[in-house]
Amino acid sequence: MNDISASIGSRRLRVTLRQLEVFVAVAKERSTRAAADTVARSQSAASSALAELEATIGRSLFDRMGRRLILNEHGLRLLPVACSLLEQAAELECMLDDHSDAPLSIAASMTIGEHILPDLLGRWHAKRPGSPVKMLVMNTSGVLDAITNLEADIGFVEGLQTRNGITAQTWLTDEMVVVARTGHPLATQQASIEQLKRASWALREVGSGTREAAERWLIERLGSISIDFELGTPQAIATLVASCDTLACLPRHAVARLAKAGELTVLNTALPRSQRRLSIVTHAAKRMGPTSEAFVEHCMSVCRTH
Fold this sequence. Notes:
The protein is α/β, with parallel strands linked by helices and 306 residues long.
């Protein structure tokens, strides 16, 4: 973004928020026609706004491929900055309308989104009821995609996965555990390595942080195991395991309620303990707005109290 800034820094700034709004919409929709519908303008008005922005900056922001508009290197540099400015403008409008906060856009991996964040969001809403929240829940790869593509402002992920252009900060820790139905033959004894090798297993899908952690913990110690089920959510796996003799490797957070209710048992095994890091991730080139910063601080306070 430095070269773009230099090109406009010596003269009066003529970039408008309307132009940036159209630019961001075109970047996401890849056409001025679809972008125009997103920002409630005519296609000609959207095309004019984009042309004016490119003329002001002095650079093309898209490569034209047939009817599609694909961000080029200049557009990729501008996009996170444009999103930040639009988010700050939304914050300003909320202040002028006597609302304290702008909307929060969050992406969270399954375990965090289903078992950790709901309580934090409830406490956040109690303190700041003027802040609506949109949370996408998906696997870790999906969260990183959402942050990379600027579809969410803050991401919460499990495991060690990361990417260029994404900033990660350690948040909480979680422990991987082996679980079985309460009446399982291994529920009342220590499960040996050989018994675990012979067991039937249910694991998360490839690409999830839980699957990455399970493979690192189990397969490195047990070798090849019989994976009879691959399911897309911890809840689905826990419900399956509660009804048959299949074992599962899941985060302790994800099984706490079913274990407390007596439907699942956390097995005592010969395996060493396995803890993993939970992280907060953001786009490295996008400045967080005040509401996003406040929510990250709200979540980080959990680290200091646990």
